[in-house]
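Section 4.2 – Deliverable D4.2 (structural model, holo form)

The reporting period included a commitment to supply a predicted holo structure for the target in complex with zinc ion. Inputs used:
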Amino acid sequence: MISSSQLEVVASKRSTAVIYERFKYIKQKVYSSGDIFWKCIMRNMKCSAFITTDSEMNYVRKVSGQHSHPALDPKEMAFEISTSFCLSPSNSVCR
Ligand SMILES: [Zn+2]
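Output (structure tokens):
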């Protein structure tokens, strides 16, 4: 089951990413508060959207910017999630 508002953690050997509201974000930095700053992966589309989550990646604190491209479709979402490691208990393929 994939909910559009769910925060899915998708990690590869090279990076940690999350999918939120059908957009994928790459981990950029961790604030001193522990909160994590994520930037949209579509940088080559000049997309400047970003989100901030809590340190546990349980919820999104802040969403900023406008995406310059369409969201992932359900097929792409499923692919992103199925190719990731199971880091999140909410990740549907981990059950
Ligand atoms: Zn974007």
